[in-house]
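FAQ: What does the model actually see?

It sees only this:
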Amino acid sequence: MKVRYRTVSGSESTAYLDDGESDTRTGADKYTDEPLTVRWDGSEWVEVAALRERGAGPVRPVEEPTT
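And it is asked to produce this:
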């Protein structure tokens, strides 16, 4: 099924979703082919933020040593 959805960043895009009866579905973005999960919020499809892998911490910039 092809749908418009609201991305995590707040913009809109188009996705192809797997068929199903659930309010949460998986699919791929039409333009980037990146996998995604969206949820029907009652008025529109909204992208669900991807969960980090267990043990993956925040990404921090390389810090220069202080003297």
